[in-house]
UniProtKB/TrEMBL annotation:
Transferase listed as a keyword: yes
GO MF annotation, one: transferase activity
Keywords: Transferase
Name of this protein: Glycosyltransferase family 2 protein
Gene3D superfamilies in the cross-refs: Spore Coat Polysaccharide Biosynthesis Protein SpsA, Chain A
Amino acid sequence: MTADPTADPTVDRTVGPTAPSLSVAICAYTVDRWDDLCAAVASVRTQTHPPAELVLVIDHCTELLRLARERFSGVRIVANGQQRGLSGARNTALAVAHGDLIAFLDDDAVADPDWTARLLAGFRTPGVLGVGGLVRPWWRTGRPGWFPPEFDWVVGCSYQGLPERGAAVRNFIGANMSFRRAPVLAVGGFRTDLGRVGRRPLGCEETELCIRLAARNPGAVLHYEPAAAVDHRVPGHRATLSYFAARCFAEGRSKSAVVRHGGAAAGLASERGYLRHTLPAALLRCLRSGQASMAAALCAGVGLTVAGYLTGLAGQWAGYRQARGSALTPTASVGQSIRGRS
């Protein structure tokens, strides 16, 4: 989104009659996280700067939809009218929301009391298309000693290596992000062939959307503001080696899909710096401090992510060859048929 030439950057348009309205959207899919959902809703209701509306999208779960309608008042509760999964649910929220801005909060996250105020403050600058914030891991069973903070993205949280102060970034973490709603609708919203469906650990739909937004709106800024913070619940089963391995592999596969849609230049821009600077510094820190298990986790995480990425590329190549072969087969059959009649 290009800057509005009539906008005065000295005027704070996040307050007063000209302030953009903010809708907050939470997407939920299971009654198993009911307590978490209640905490997320409560954290939005107690904001120092209340949003214009809170939209709760229920992703194809009849029991949860009934329960939410019974228990929550003052919340717009809608069923996901699109394809099952997080992307479809978020697109439903985009379609039904009334706000000029829309913020997404995960159903297992709790926002700080000044979360919406901090997000809104980020939109004061003309040309800012989106604002994302810090996602702190809330380890329910304690943080494993071997788990590197550089891999906190595995559990959907901000990781060591992100800017410590406000800065422009390529993409946000999905648990805590906000956008100007109209530009997101203009590019078609979230891709439904990416993102989580139930417990399937694939993702990167928000990364692909951010890349697409930037490509469609040259000069626009996606601003990371760590002061706009939320706590993201990390249950015990996500603090295991098996989950770490599965999630790293899935992230690699997801990244290959992002590259397919947006190209390697944008799709791997952040990852290059991460591999060249963040991870070597982390490995050196572990070796110096004698944290062998964390050093092993760093190496395993990189290897598994790369393996997932290569697997995704191989699958894409196989699909391309199959599609090409299918396209050529009918032509050959027609040629043979013509020769047979001559």
